[in-house]
Amino acid sequence: MAITLVNPSGLPEVDAYRQVSIATGSKLVFIAGQVAWNAQGVTVGHGDLAAQVEQCYLNVGTALAGAGASFEDVAKLTVYVVDWTPDKLPVFMEGVARAAAKLGVAPVPPGTLLGVAALDVPEHLVEVEATAVVD
Fold this sequence. Notes:
The protein is α+β, with helices and mostly antiparallel strands. The chain has a single domain, classed as CATH 3.30.1330.40. The protein has two helices and six strands; from the N terminus they run E-E-E-H-E-H-E-E. Helix 1 packs parallel to helix 2. It is globular, with a radius of gyration of 14 Å. 33% of the residues are buried. The mean pLDDT is 92.
């Protein structure tokens, strides 16, 4: 495995992700921001943040597989959420947990969550992009 995830002492330990990702592989994989479209380009979960988060993570998993990678190879996630407020965290984490259960992994690489005004189309509530390193 090309990625080692750690929480160094001296930094707060966050349950949702690890603070540091150490990459040792030789191939970088950059996954474009994935929104809540299914394979037919139809938005999944209109108005449902958890459902859209789940679909975004599943789409990232599909994109990673297409590059010969998996969530175990992800060095960094960046998540964009429309009109983010901290009270949305439990719903966001519900979507992550559902995706993790379907993917059979705990997607916990370092991540950045950014609140944004809007995404590509009005019904999209979240977008997830990933950077992976593969041996």
